[in-house]
Specification:
The chain is mainly α. The chain contains 14 helices and no strands. It has two domains: 184 residues, no CATH class; 162 residues, no CATH class.
Amino acid sequence: MMVQASSTSLAFLIDQTLAEVPTLAHAVYNGLQDELKDRLEHQYLLGCWNRHRARFIADLEDSLSQSLLIARTGGAPLPYQRPPQRDGELPLSLVDDAQVLKDVAIAHVTQAIEEHSRAELHQLGNFFAALRGIARPLKNDNPLRAALFAQALARTIDGVPVDADSRYALMRMAAPPLTASLHHLYSSLCQSLRAARLSGLLISHGSPSQGAERRQRQWGTVPDMTMRPAAPGSFAMSTPAVPQSDEDLQGREQHRQAWLRKLRSQLQRQLDHAQAGKLIRRFLLGPWIEVIAQVMIQHGEEASETRTCLGLVTTLLHSVSPQPDEAARERLRAQLPRLIEALNRGMDVIALPPMERKTFLDALMRRHGRALQLPGCLMSR
């Protein structure tokens, strides 16, 4: 039976979202205002914010509405845009550092939204996939995905006359109120679909391996930076068998220690052939092998989550290497947000302390900035 287009079409859901744009914008504005006034460490931003805040709500509404209207007509609302180049400025300059910082902030906001509304986004993804006749829903099938709102927020904050570090701080402060408001919106959209008797389209559909695929989407992979067959010196694992009984804690810990020893040995050999620097070496031989071992215990050595963690070793090493030409730098620039998101998910597994995580990501951002400059640049530390 055909359901009325007004209640099932993409346009209907986007129109419902457009109606909530003013509420979203006001919530973000109020959250930023409260944070800036209540936290002494943000007092240095108050002057610029107070001069600009009268425009903020209108700018955010305009940015969100533009993206949603593009999505409504079937367009691509998230094209990658390089930062504007001023007259007389070199094609590759320190502006790359600001862009990397912006990309990291967008990835942070996107991840916060997805983690808070994972179930609702999964249901909406199933609906949009069903509309397109796709058996396996993907994140990018959802025109209302978290990244659309994160990038609209970034464009708005670009208009605040502060430096790149301050924009990064504003993005992180804006994440909680935007995340909370979007959770209410996504829940409302799912309720509208259920009211239209489309509950069947909200249920996961496809092959019996859907659960594994869903976990793989949850962990994420880094597109265009896929793992190749293991070459000599590359990071490929042959591991002990996982204990069959979850109650055998001692056996699990023994296997974990065995994995850690083997991981460290093989990774040290790989790093001996790579110019990783002290920063990456300490991270991979410390927190990241803990992540891999924990994921092996939770999911098994052949699971997609384990392969993702192993593949990120090669991905991370590639990301801090000088890029040979402009095309390679452009590809890396577009891939960095997904890399940072995957690293954050891994660090969540071992509950890496926030300060240790921030120190590593801040230093990694500087390495990425150098990698995105001229080819052959010196990579220190």
